[in-house]
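Justification of resources, computational component.

The compute hours requested in this renewal are based largely on the per-chain cost of generating structure records like the one below. Each record pairs the submitted sequence with a full structure-token output. That output is archived, and it is also reused by downstream analysis tasks.
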Amino acid sequence: MRYLLILVLCFTAVNSYSQDSTATKTPSIVKGTITSSTTEGPLTEVNIVNINQVKGVATDDNGEFEISAKVNDTLHLSYIGYKSIKVRVTNDWLKFGNTEIVMTELALALEEVTVKQLKLTGYLEVDIKQVPITSNNRYRISGLYGQGYEAGKPNIATKVLGAIFNPADFLYNMFGKKPNEMHKLKKMKEDDEIRNQLAKRFDREMLLVLLQVNKFDLDEIVNQCNYSKDFINTANDLQILDAISECYEEYKVIKRSKDLKKGRKKGKA
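The structure output for this chain reads:
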């Protein structure tokens, strides 16, 4: 009888371990409700992104959401006017279902805005000289065909080509040393919810979190990919994503061609 009891306990322990191991490796549906610390009510349209799986959802009118995740995946939650937070998925969360997550409101201070008055005379030849002129070297709008126009700067292919042959180049370091992060670009473009979220945003926060770069590096990537400062300052997050993705695809094509040439030279030698 004692041996039978031991066998049952061993079987239970093995079965429990097997379930936990499976839960860790197999994506499950995580459910949650997001509320405000100020109003204690639900928050609608909160952006939730699984950083590991590159999946995105938004909360409904009741502040509820469901997203595919595995144990130890990290969810990034962001909402305008509230402090963004990261939440790790645990075994308990998967077992016990819906979890309430409270977000804290930010104290926002408006920056002083200076409005400059243009003194117009009514004469076109005179007034047109007062209008500030900005030069867009390259401008591409997401969803529209065409590559915009160039003005005095080398195109993307030339920039990327220079990066591959110069290991000290900024693009070489960013694209070559962050392959896992850059591979997320394709997943981000394929996820409709993430694209919809990025199209509404201009803060770059979601891009910074998913690509694991800081704001300076993100702007510099777009700049080195031959997009103008005007584009960097005015484009929404989806347009920035498309710009970096296009540049990275150019990088992969040119690098693949360079590696093939190297292989052929070694074969001949």
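The longest strand covers residues 28-36. Confidence is low (pLDDT under 50) at residues 139-153.
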